[in-house]
Amino acid sequence: MSRRSISIRELAAAAGVSVGTASRALKHQQGLSAETRDRVLQLAAELGYDTGRLKQEPVRRILVLLHSQHPADSPFYAALLDGARDRCAKDGVEMQVRSLGPGRPVRRQVLECEPDALLCVGFFEPELIHAIARLGKPLALADLWAPGLAAVNPDNRQGAYLATQHLLANGRKRIAFLSGPLAHYSIRLRERGYRQALFDAGRLADPSLEALIAPGLDVATGAAQAMRELLALPVPPDAVFAYNDTAALVALQVCRDTGLRVPDDIAVAGFDDIAGAAGAGLTTLAVDKAALGRAGIELLLNQADEGNRLQPVSLIVRTTTASTPE
User: Does the keyword section mention Transcription (predicted)?
Assistant: First the structure.
């Protein structure tokens, strides 16, 4: 005689958790400790819970979260959000965008929107990601990475490698890296790509050529200050690779204001290929920002497991590094 399959309510009671927590554990969703998930799964096996009864709830409402330091109308994130909206519209999924501020509890800011799933875009502090994951909603990341979560990112390291390699191939000897805060996942990887290209070319990274935008400064002010410090070195750089196009465009203007000829005296390259890069003739790495947004939504709609999917980037050579652009 076969044993009766217990209900999910009975399983939850045996595990000492809520029905929702038991359901998330059985579906291997984020937001639970490994101990809680393992306890529920072990009891499910011991007590004969029929996992075939599980149903994946359809995602009908997605909340896209941005850190308060990232304006939604910035050139990079506006294009990413457009891609996410297009993908949601394809399946009739409602999408909201919210900027998480420090003044109110994360739980209240998120749950008052009643989302089925969450997409975090861009930089978030690890503790903030942890608080969001604990809400128990399906969660994915775009332009960000955290252990145990599904994520999609541009190939930041390879892109920075290509840009630095290009500058080296053009005979540049002192290549500076103009960096933003290294707490950002994408910036850390761009720094690694820059360093790896120097290493592979037999060059030692010169610490004096790594300029960091001072904490608390906006990109325009901080990049200008950092670029002026680089140009004031006893032996200034003959090229600068900036962590993004916004910083690169500021650096480009500082060079020209100083009377330097670009690219004869100094070459400048950026990353992201934002709208203003082409008009300025800026060499950069093209990121398909709309595709990045679409891919983030796909992770949620397909209930993707953890892992980091990389989107390819491509080097676009323009007049800031070559008198005859490719």
Answer: yes
